[in-house]
Predict the structure.
Amino acid sequence: MTSNLQVEIDLLRQRALRNELTLEEVKRAVVLLREARGKAYMPTTKAAKAAKPSVDTTKLLEGL
Amino acid sequence: MRTFPTAVDSTMLASLRACHRQFDLGTLQSYKPKGQSIHLHAGGAFASALEAARMAFYADNKSHDDSVALGLQKLIEAYGDFESGDHAKSLDRMCGALEYYFSQYPMDADPAQVITLQGKPAVEFSFAIPLPIKHPDSGEPILYAGRFDAIMEYAGGLYANDDKTATSLGASWSKQWELRGQFIGYAWAMREFGIPPAGTIVTGISILKTKYETQRAVISQSNDKIEEWLQDTIAEIEDAKTRYVAGARWKKNWSESCNAYGACQFKQCCQVSDPQPWLDTYFEVRPWDPLVRVSL
């Protein structure tokens, strides 16, 4: 699966190949990379909590 | 056709020490695999990005963030239209690795700081120093050549810095460098230039599809170790020269070097009685000149 970050970097690559890449564009990319790293390094316990369903599906299945 | 190198670098020496046949095929006969290795391409682009960022910060007094951005720009340009396929060292992962590197070693707060030599930051510069060995064909002194990533001041001492990209860094990664000839050679070169070497800083960054990691090893290089390395290096090159002049046999190692670093590039050739068809099909002759750091 292609992520938004991959798409952004590939766009910058295309602009670099045409000699159109600007420092401002690259500075925005640095921010995106920093944000992506922040998400990737979110502690797993927080990620697990966020992923936990709010409804107990076991109980729902028992009711069927 | 065999040609003895006019300049020897650490890669050639490592090959000579690992396996005579590998040295013969790769250095004397200049066989290189066809196509570009993603590890070399991505590693080269990353090195040029570090250089651009450090030059922006230390030479042009740019802010840390602007310097990192200029490094990223260089990385994207140097990576170019290389197709990485599904490899972990894709362009976007390499860009992430650069941002991660400078988040861990910010130039404005890193205890290891690039020094200034003759008014310029000591970043990415080459050296070539004559050895007391005459070239077997020209009679000129053979040179020992290399290139520093940077020279840094750290904890009151001067260190050659070397950055290494890797797929992964194991628990013993930092313990493998104490006797690495490449780094002792850097310390010798520093000494020859009148820069007293305290040692080497090796900074490794691993680039996986899901995460980055880094480790830094600080190795001391004593004068005794440097001197012994120098004497062994001279003896090894003299031995190779003698074999070259005599047209002696370049023997296979028949051991671990066949499998080191994911297997020797000539492993398949060494398994057949006539390697020439393999060489003609999968390799090309590209002499490497460490003085200009390009394949000729």
